[in-house]
Amino acid sequence: MNILPWDLSVIPQKFFLFAEAASYTLQITFFGVLLGLLIGLVVALGRLSKNRALSSLSKAYIFLIRGTPLLVQLFIVYYGLTSIVTIAPIPSAIMALAVHNGAYIAEIFRGSIQSIHYGQMEAARSLGMTHGKAMRRIVLPQAFKRAVPSLGNQLIIALKDSSLASTIAVPELMLKGRQMGSSTFMYMEMFIIVGIWYLLMTSVLTYVIHRVEEKLKVSDRD
User: Fold this and answer.
1) What residues does each domain of the chain span?
2) Fold for domain 20-172?
3) What is the 3-state secondary structure (H, E, C) of the chain?
4) For residue range 13-67, what is the model confidence (pLDDT) as tens digits?
């Protein structure tokens, strides 16, 4: 006799019906973080620039994005920009995730760049390298290695944050869970399935990130 008010036997039956929604979750997360990496690197370099206008603009971007919720940013991108140009829900979600993650990634890159001893830049400049070349060849490769653990954490956070894309009708896991719940009246069972999918994806990402960290540690010792 089932003492729980839920029919947990439907979980294995319905589990793989969420596979397509999980693929959309991964897509918007991957492209959102990929664009966020580009934005973050540019903003981090701007933040460290000696150009006061560029540095101030970068600081303002970080302050604004980190100080407002992702849901608000998502609505501004989707409902605000669609009044000017038509943008589908998935590209809107990717853009919002990119802008949001870019601010956090910028601070990760800034911290890792500043952790590289200034003497390395001075040594590179004394060898005749320009500031830009020294950054590309000496500072940034080391900074990126140091940023990997924090970037990995940000990727996992972005994966979970992608659930907010359901609010603009992106067919990802949360929206699928709500739709399946409303059609079967088994909300708890459907959201347990959603939770299992997220747990599986974050576990795989955590393992991959850990392996990358181990590889980088080995290369540092070689």
Assistant:
1) 20-172
2) MetI-like fold (1.10.3720)
3) CCCCCCCCCHHHHHHHHHHHHHHHHHHHHHHHHHHHHHHHHHHHHHHHCCCHHHHHHHHHHHHHHHCCCHHHHHHHHHHHHCCCCCCCHHHHHHHHHHHHHHHHHHHHHHHHHHCCCHHHHHHHHHCCCCHHHHHHHHHHHHHHHHHHHHHHHHHHHHHHHHHHHHHHCCCCHHHHHHHHHHHHCCHHHHHHHHHHHHHHHHHHHHHHHHHHHHHHHHHHHC
4) 999 999 999 999 999 999 999 999 999 999 999 999 989 999 999 999 999 999 9
